[in-house]
Amino acid sequence: MSNVKALPLLEPEAHEAVAPCCPPLTERPFTAEEAERTARMFKALGDPVRLRLFSAVASAEAGEACVCDISDVGVSQPTVSHHLKKLKEAGLLTSERRGTWVYYRVEPSVLAAMSKLLTTTATP
Amino acid sequence: MSNVKALPLLEPEAHEAVAPCCPPLTERPFTAEEAERTARMFKALGDPVRLRLFSAVASAEAGEACVCDISDVGVSQPTVSHHLKKLKEAGLLTSERRGTWVYYRVEPSVLAAMSKLLTTTATP
What we know:
2 copies of one chain form a homodimer. Chain A has 124 residues and is α+β, with helices and mostly antiparallel strands. Chain A contains 5 helices and 3 strands. Chain A has a 3-stranded antiparallel beta sheet. In chain A, strand 2 (93-98) and strand 3 form a beta hairpin. In chain A, helix 3 crosses helix 4 (77-89). The A-B interface holds A 25-32, 35-36, 38-40, 42-52, 54-56, 58-59, 63, 73-74, 106, 108, 111-112, 114-116, 118-120, 123 and B 25-32, 35-36, 38-40, 42-52, 54-56, 58-59, 63, 72-74, 106, 108, 111-112, 114-116, 118-120, 123.
């Protein structure tokens, strides 16, 4: 019999990026650390090709898409894969391998947190 | 007497960037043109220093700030000016010169439009 126990899988980088850390940008000046974490997410959406891919996944009928579903953005499949990986690293997408393909889905909590960052508080 | 008339000042680039062009990213895949316009705004917030400056202006008491008000982000005044100009070019800030200083304020309609882009529609 083995002594090895299944430990919960830790994904430190993903978790770090995903955490909706911060108040709305209009509430108070961000600290350097808050800005560092948050800028990563905005940067991931700051590229036109990546933004198109993100909206392709985000609006996919089944709520998920693989590279095999995406063919009309005018870049090669390796480039599509590269950008989807970047979006995942920024915490905006999650992925699951099934057979040959990796399927991506939007992480709704992160999207909601980003949306909240941009809400304007009514000022006098 | 002079024939020169004051013409209304056109700011084509600023106007173009400001227009809240697009539906939520989750609604349908973005076209290349929509992605191009929208990525500019996200890219502007995709830099930690720029994001700190943006939140400093956005949360300023009078609703506006000049370079003279911002001194604690650890970069030089010319760098602060450069980043504020970038944020303005992306349509996220507006500016007004008064005396020696240029005062910046957040463009709330653009912020609201970006926030809306990130809203998640309930999917089955």
